[in-house]
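[scheduler] slot 2 assigned
[scheduler] job type: sequence-to-structure, two independent chains
[scheduler] chain ordering preserved from manifest
[runner] begin chain α
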Amino acid sequence: MDGNTEGLWVFDSETLEQEAVVEAVEGQTIQGVVMSSKSGRWYLSWSEGSTLEGTHRDVLAALDPSTGRIVERATFSDRSVAGPLVYEPTRNEIVAYGSGSFGARFFDAETLELNRQHPIGPTDSVEVLAAVVDTERGKIYFGVSRFGKTRKVRVYDVGEQTVVRSFRPTADPALRGSGVTDLALSPGGRFLYTTTYSLDTGGAFSAVDLEAGEVVAEHPAGSYANLAVHPNGRSVYVDCPAGGWRGLIPTKRVLRYNVEARKVEVFIDGAEGRGVKGLGSDAALVATHITALSDDQGIVMVVSGPTRDGEDVHMVRVDRETGKALSTYSLPRDERGYLRATITDLQLSSGPGGK
């Protein structure tokens, strides 16, 4: 969360009722969050201090969700940690990634000590924008951009501790973007799903068959779109990204990819003014983060846009088949009517209850 109430907020995945606020970071915005599948710990990253005053520090912290307290904390003087994180269970490591100046850094999940760092691209100009871990095959897929011109997926072998190959995630020249912005794997890891961004033509969604080594589906999408793979593996959802705050025009559509048919359809068509069913939306709701819940609980999206009665909705759970709203959440406002926070990330806990 960001705003006047930072920290890690916990919601019931079915009702979206707020259950806890972990005041883990006072006055700072959490920039990376990931959960260990082994220990159940949550790992957070953020920046603090001032670059101008020479007090800047990047922070990596481990949080015990049962107590809401930080149990380990490490600080670094360079800008190498604050940003996205993934968890790699084979070596029990937290992986931080970002600009090519350090590529990816691998930290011991118990001690938070830096084990090693590895370049993901051939030069320091490579920006790493996304990563996903294939635990069954011991691979980490990194999505990269170089000067906003090259988009590739680089494959890091956990055992060999090096990048072993790279490939382009789209085949159609018209859909070649400037960088890979999100990655997701199918259950079992056969298919890799990607989104890209472009400053000119918009982004794209693609599905890559990793066994066959070919792109099996691709479709235009909004730049900086996020992905959610349903646990049954039959559908992939592509949100309408926060393109507006990046100076890009959002598509106002949430897409759904049918894995068996290998076809993309419009799941929620906000561009036609309908928005999410059941919210009575006059204006299209723009989804900025998306995650798929287990079983038939549906899809949760972070959204931005008023309903017909003028009420702001900031998170909504929808039926995975119909797109109808099942539950909603609105961020609190202060006494002057201003929002107290914004949702900067959305992740599903694999612990009891699926928060």
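[runner] end chain α
[runner] begin chain β
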Amino acid sequence: MVPRWPSPTKALRELSRGARMVKVGGAGAGWRFLREEVLGNGWLRLTEGGGGDPESARVVCNLCGWAGSRFASHVAPGYLDKNAFCPRCKAYARHRGCAWLLAERLGDELDAVATRGGRRLLFAPEAGLRNLLESRVGALEGVDIDGGRAGVDIVADAQDLPLADGSVELVVSFHVLEHVPDDARALAEIARVLTPTGRLLLCAPMTFEREATQEFGEARADLNDHWREYGTDLRERLLAAGLDGPSYRFSHELPADEFRRLALVDEELFWVGRRA
């Protein structure tokens, strides 16, 4: 069944009441929202582009230090994500949550990675995330199926990595696994290339309201080409690939005031390696 999305008027009303993300439909809705949000984001950059006082600002980016009344909104076909990315460094909520966890929970682990040999891979490389991680663990190699993407060093499919067994010390995968047709195959490939001490740093969109992952059977154009929406059984999928280790849920790890100041959405960061 095709979901019935709210009208643009209703969606704007929901946003004014504080909704983080709404789906929109109706004739011309995408263009209307694009116009509104481009203007809104443009006004934000014009009036607050230089940043404000972190002590009094409503939101703060912990990657670049920008502070202001809100983050910029992300517009995509069918939905609007409010308060999403930093207007200065383009860091999204997942990057801000990751930065906090790397500093507060995984510092010793990252220091250990930095001292070991082995390759370090970043799937679907994003500049902000790359800079954050390279400052802790050294140079990363960008991996993507699209060789035209910026920052790509290895053109490869995550389901078939052209790398030797046990040759990789770190794999970083942020919001990639949901785009892979066969995620079990991709996870098995990651497990294959990891060294015995290697780690996978993984974050994927998921709901905590449902255990079972919802498989769509295709890349859904209306959901940014996602093949699935993960439930809490994502850990079971990792275990099935022979990967195990701790995970950190943003809402459980961060103090409530810090969660709000970073404008996070609730996600879970997995730090897993090959089971002995």
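[runner] end chain β
[qc] chain β: Residues 93-275 form a domain with the Rossmann fold fold (CATH 3.40.50.150).
[scheduler] slot 2 released
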